Amino acid sequence: MDPTERMSVGVLVERRRIDSLWQPERWQAVTVLPDALPLPPWTILEEGDGWTRYYAGAVELELFRTETDNYKHNLESTRPSVYVILRRGGEGPGVTLLEATVDPGEIDAHSDAGDDLIDALPLPAPIAAWMRDFLARHHVERPFHKRQRDRADTEALGRRVPVSFPEDDDA
């Protein structure tokens, strides 16, 4: 089984009223905390004119040895990120905290559907340190190997075998 490490993180989410006929509010993850807070999900932390900030709850970040290339790419990018995925509906005040990840490749699956709200937030230093430690223990550099295509058999592509159908013989 692939060694996995987990870290529980807390997520802060903000709801803002917007002036739109189609959508009365905008949801956005605003902060990932390196430690979960001892609060129930969807606790209101702050409110202002037209906005509310919630502690959405805790989720677990997971690191897998087979995905170290993705973590390394994230850490070496110009903007290392934690990706928070929210889904409209469900429990809470209109959205559900689905998950958080540090694997940019995992985000592709959620962005294809188009229903999830995905926010890339700055990677907190304690999470980055945890990732670097994991990479130091598990990452193996693999040289890039370009796959060679099989050459097409041009003779086979040009040959056509006549096909006859039984109903053609009756005509």
Description:
This protein has one domain (4-138). 25% of the residues lie in helices and 38% in strands. The protein is built from 5 helices and 7 strands; from the N terminus they run E-E-E-E-H-E-E-H-E-H-H-H. The protein has helices spanning 68-76, 104-113, 125-138, 154-158, 166-170, and strands at residues 4-17, 25-33, 43-48, 51-64, 81-88, 95-101, 116-122. The strands form 2 sheets. It has a 4-stranded antiparallel β-sheet with strand order 2-1-4-3, with helices on one face. Strands 6-5-7 form a 3-stranded antiparallel β-sheet, covered by helices on one side. A hairpin with a 2-residue loop joins strand 3 and strand 4 (51-64). Helix 1 crosses helix 3 (125-138). The longest helix is centred in the C-terminal third of the chain and has 14 residues, at 125-138. The termini are far apart.
Give the amount of beta strand, in percent: 35-45%
Q: Going across the major beta sheet, what is the strand order?
A: 2-1-4-3
Return residue spans where pLDDT drops below 50 for at least 5 consecutive residues.
Answer: none
Describe the main β-sheet briefly.
Answer: 4 strands, antiparallel
N-end to C-end Cα span: 65 Å
Tertiary shape: flat
Oligomer: single chain
Please give the number of β-strands.
7
Number of domains: 1
Structural class: alpha+beta
Assign a percent range to the helix content: 25-40%
Compose a concise summary of this entry.
With 171 residues, the protein is of the alpha+beta class. It contains 5 helices and 7 strands.
Helix-strand blueprint:
Layout: E1 4-17, E2 25-33, E3 43-48, E4 51-64, H1 68-76, E5 81-88, E6 95-101, H2 104-113, E7 116-122, H3 125-138, H4 154-158, H5 166-170
Antiparallel strand pairs: 1-2, 1-4, 3-4, 5-6, 5-7
